[in-house]
Amino acid sequence: MKIGITCYPTYGGSGVVATELGLELAQRGHEIHFISYAQPIRLTELHADIHYHEVDVSRYPLFDYPPYDLALATRMAEVSELYGLDLLHVHYAIPHSVSALLARQMLADKPKGQRLPFVTTLHGTDITLVGLDRSYLPITRFSIEHSDGVTAVSKYLQDRTRREFDVRNSIQVIYNFVNCDIYCRNAASAEQRAEYAREDERILVHLSNFRPVKRVTDTIEIFERVRKKLASKLLLIGDGPDRSRAEWLAVQKGIHNDVIFLGKQDQVSEKLALADVLLMPSELESFGLAALEGMACEVVPIATRVGGVPEVIEHGKSGYLADVGDVETMARYTIDLLTDAGRLKAMATTCREVARSRFGASKIIPQYEEFYRLTLERSS
Questions:
Q1: What is the pLDDT of residues 332-379, one digit of tens each?
Q2: Where along the chain do its domains lie?
Q3: Judging by DSSP bridges, how do beta strands 202-207 and 232-237 pair with one another?
Q4: Fold category of 2-177+361-379 in CATH
Q5: Where are the alpha helices (DSSP H) in 230-285?
Q6: What secondary structure, in 3-state letters, does 15-48 show?
Q7: What is the rounded CA–CA span in Å between residue 261 and residue 217?
Q8: Residues 190-199 pLDDT 10s
Q9: What is the DSSP string of 305-338?
């Protein structure tokens, strides 16, 4: 199949999933065309079946905000016509599914009447933020209901979309995935670990885009409590608006020498594999991709019991769950686990097996391929 993929190219779960999906599909023989205003940050591999098409947004004095959604629709239609795409797969309802809807109509109105089906994958913020800003609800519902196929990354998100938007068409759950051949521990992990911590120290890690919903300062609070009980280091992967708050908090608590801000990383798997525990104290997660990537690397997640996270982490078996803001409980889980080497190793092994058997790319990618086939059949 020839598939066009549109996502936000920035540092975030939806862009990561969309890019990794395209890479996996290309490996399976599909022709992939990424259409976005910038090249996705995870699109670092060269492959004959992967193409990138930049959306050029013209800036005029008339517009306070350039109309990206219209420029995107135009580019989607152009690429689809030039390369004979079979369908578009857009990640995020707003504005991507609206643009895909316009592109589909633009092509349908041409003399040849090309049919361009599109699939919308809901990742969370496109639904949860709209729940706070009702002005976007009608257009979001409209774009979802006019999608040829809709998927959600968790049952939680599927249920919330149905409840808040009262959509009539079906929404299929296809979980996020991880490539366990890339996300894993290896011989190099032990050597790299020594760059950040002594042999007697444990390593904790946090991975996010540092938005307020990720509660990165809670990560600092948890680490401070852990650091009082055992020698350890904290690695923070990513960047965003709350980074400076986290840096200042680490300084104020006197633990800044043990808190290492790594910024955005191209090879996230290599850094995750150095850690023992992953902290994810988010206020909301529709799935929890960071936890899954950590699990594949045998890093035990300690997270909040929100959104779709309980669908990924089974409390007490493949990680631990606590209430939002309960840094004391999350610190206690971390300390208890890191001071019991046998339990830590056993749980790390379980995490890896869960990631491989339930969320491995070899299990999830065929679900997308089958969904594409069914969508094309319904649209023909």
A1: 999 999 999 999 999 999 999 999 999 999 999 999 999 999 999 998
A2: 2-177+361-379, 187-359
A3: parallel
A4: Rossmann fold (3.40.50)
A5: 243-252, 268-272
A6: HHHHHHHHHHHHHCCCEEEEEECCCCCCCCCCCC
A7: 13
A8: 788 989 999 9
A9: S-TTHHHH--TTTS-EEE-TT-HHHHHHHHHHHH
* Contact yes or no for 154/286 (Cβ under 8 A): yes
Rounded to a whole number, what is the distance in angstroms from the first to the last CA of the chain?
A: 15
Query: Are 2-177+361-379 and 187-359 the same fold in CATH?
Result: yes
- What is the Cα gyration radius of the chain? 21
CA 36/CA 75 separation, integer angstroms: 9
Structure-token pair, residue 29: 């023989």
User: In CATH terms, is domain 187-359 a member of 3.40.50.2000?
Assistant: yes
Instruction: Characterize 61-79 residue by residue with b for buried, 16 or more Cβ atoms within 10 angstroms of its Cβ, and e for exposed.
Output: eeeeeeeebebbbbbbbbb
How far apart CA 120 and CA 155 sit, in angstroms, is 16
What is the signed CA dihedral for 226, 227, 231, 235, rounded to 10 degrees?
90
pLDDT at residue number 139: 85
Alpha-carbon dihedral angle through residues 45, 78, 70, 23, given to the nearest 10 degrees: -20
pLDDT of residue 37: 84
Position of tokens 């800003």?
133
Q: Which two tokens stand for residue 314?
A: 């089974």
In whole angstroms, give the CA distance from residue 139 to residue 102.
13
Of the candidates 175, 176, 179, 181, the residue with the CA atom closest to the CA atom of residue 361:
179
Contact 275, 183 (CB under 8 A): no
**Other C-beta atoms within 10 Å of 56: how many?**
9
Distance CA 219, CA 336 (A): 17
Q: At what angle do helices 137-145 and 98-108 cross, to 10 degrees?
A: 50
Residue 230 CA to residue 232 CA, distance in Å, equals 6
Peptide bond into 95 cis (omega under 30): yes
